[in-house]
Design a protein that fits this description.
336 residues; five-stranded mixed sheet
Amino acid sequence: MIFDITDVNNIIKTDSVKVDARTINDVTVSPGAKYAVIAREGASNRVNGVVLLDISTPAHPKIASSFDQNLTGGVHNMFATDDYLYAVSGGQKYVIIDVKDIKNPKYVSEYEHPGARLHDLWVHDGIAYSAQGGAGTVVVDVGNGKYGGTPQKPKLITVYAVNSGHEIYPYFQKSTGKTYLFIGDEEMNRAGRVYEGTNYQLSGPGGVPPRNGVPQTSGGFTHIVDFTDPMHPIPVGQYHMEDYGSHDIIVENDILYQAYYDGGVRVVDVSGELMGNLADQSREIAVFKSFDPTGYTANAPFVMNAMPWKKDFVLFTDFNSGLWAAKLEPKTPVVP
């Protein structure tokens, strides 16, 4: 679905694009807005892959092409650059696709790490950082060149062993010259904790959770690693809220926009040197929990993804209540 968000107080659906898929898990737009791309899973003919969209008229995208070579197992996540698309294939590997001509995408190469389950990847400065359960963070030269890799011949740089394999975000901090890696857990239950949660069932009769059933709970947190020297990564801190679990991560202008599932949207200052638990350091700028009495599960925030928009807005999606826009207001001065 495509929405006009020019006026965030009046979000308007302008069009939609339908493809053969049971699930569309990721939609992304290239940095230069040359194309958008849809990830497909569960196609009726078992041929999944990706669908590239011509967005020269943004409100009304048109299908430019589809690509499924080595992607028939389904695509869960992707990372787009103007020239290349990196698509996660069946949780096993990522395939690099030449998209210079969006009407004629071409297979370039792929990278598969042994004994790991791939979920997410981001590419920064020609280096692909991927979250891989069973291995940790897998770092590959896909065009940086310093470590001998190219898009045609990716080369492993290092593996950072961490018990987390879900979300990942590399961030270059201008003020310090450091590259920090934010690595997110995703734990869909709280078994073994003091508060174990509600035994939420993802599916019920008909394959969907019952409406207005028990709220979902989560666990896990965001690890922070100094990855300035990929050969010598240094774990320095975390953003850890014990009662909730982390999901998607965006960092922009030294601010972390964290989708924290039942903990809502968390906006956190990540400027300067990072160490320890940021949640204990008065670094939280704002928290917004999307309580909605008309949600699929009423008044049960479960934020999947959040990102900044323009100067003062945050757009985010909630598992129970859809697409939201929130304005980040300045702090009200304390009056004695």
